[in-house]
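Hello again, I could really use a second opinion on something today. I've been puzzling over a protein and I'd love to understand its fold better. I'm sending you its amino acid sequence along with the backbone structure tokens. It would help a lot if you went through both lines with me. I've dropped the whole record in just underneath, so have a look.
***
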Amino acid sequence: MNENAPFAPLLTRAAAAETTADPSSVMTLLADSDTTGGLLTSYRSTFAEGAVGAPAHFHTKASEMFFVLDGSLQVLVGEELSVLEKGDFLLVPPHTPHAFAAAPGAEADVLFVFTPGMARFDYLRLLGRVMRGEAGFDEIKASSEQYDNHYVDSPVWQRVLAERG
């Protein structure tokens, strides 16, 4: 290890990575802030067709990066809807409301990176429990400051969800 580096090199093998799953997605936990010197947090999500990834929310400290590995991801950034396709990259700065879901009729495989990093793996585990019906959404709401995940109302995103049925 380089003595000037703030953390040791990190290799997360796919076969050894922790996963958390719910009926419509699988999240593969790759690197949390405690293993990256606080520089980033990263995970991969695979969404089944029709899966809703996240309601409208924003982060106050972190920028969130989306890189579509395969499939199509519908995103809301501010009040603008778009579809990201395989190979597309999106960077959402702090304080910018956004939401995402597998695009209609598509699956999606997405790499997420938050920078700077913060301990988010416990949030992702909690999210999995909520989606499986093992915990209530009130636990997510109560953790908004801890995980820098602040939910907002979005009439545009509500319309998208209503159109999905």
The mean pLDDT is 93.
